[in-house]
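Final report, Chapter 2: Outcomes

The project's central promise was a pipeline that accepts a single protein chain and returns its three-dimensional structure in a standardized token representation, suitable for archiving and comparison. That pipeline is now operational. To close this chapter, we reproduce one record exactly as it appears in the project archive, with the input sequence first and the structure output second.
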Amino acid sequence: MTYEIINGWIVGKLPGPNGDLIPVKHFPQGPYERRQRNNPLLCLHTTETDGYVEDLRFPTEFQVGEDVIGQHRPLWARGAAVDEHDHDLLQIEIVGFSKLDRWLPKPSSLPPLVALMALLHRRGFVVTALRRPTRWPVPLDRLPAAVDTYYRRLEVWDHAFVYGHVEIPGDEHWDPGSLDHPALFSIVRDVLAPKEVDGEMLSDNQLEGIQFANGMRRYLDSPDNEPAEPGPHRQGFRFAERITTHIEGEPPPAAFEPSRSPTEGMQLSPDEKHPGREEEEETQSRGGSEGSSD
């Protein structure tokens, strides 16, 4: 593993589909208010843009696109992208356009989304990243959906499922439309599947535990040889160092906040837009397969 979590910020890279490592970039957007709910529900949005939005008008904790996972707020801080339930949710903006026909994010957004969902599910940062009500069809039904009386906003809230903005009570948006959750969940499960190591099938949690223990041993063997890369190996090294030097008795370090990441090579867009009734009607008139436009 090549990441660490420091004061709610993910530092490093997350494993994604096909063994690829997806970099995490940081675009801090404070102020930060601690989320009231300890086990938030996962909520997905679309930016309705072609490119990444560096400064979100309504910040979510994460945004995925341009082959990166962008973190805008710490894991413990609430987002600000829905009207009434930000404290109940951990929210992700997907760079792309909602559709009324069944769809999956484009290739520059899908792997980062999968890698992030796998981490959130495995580490328990959300109640689940792998479950939807079985009675809801994949395509949005009983339209219009961009109204506060849409049936999905009231039918199961707030049970342990993955939600879209379209299903959050008190809102009138329909993103992420007919996102193909079964296909998305299947790819996330592939990332979460146990992996063979020296003839043994091990989960990512087991692998991280082994690497953490090896890091502790590394400190005991060579205390001046800290691992350069972030991950459980370096965390284990630093944990052993704290225990050995009794650093826990010293004043705590200042809260960590990462510096803003560079955007070279990324396509950027100025503002996100959560599609409402007007965009839903435009998409219906085009047959449902095209995304809404700004």
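Archive annotation: The radius of gyration is 20 Å.
This record, like all others produced under the grant, will remain available to the consortium after the project formally closes.
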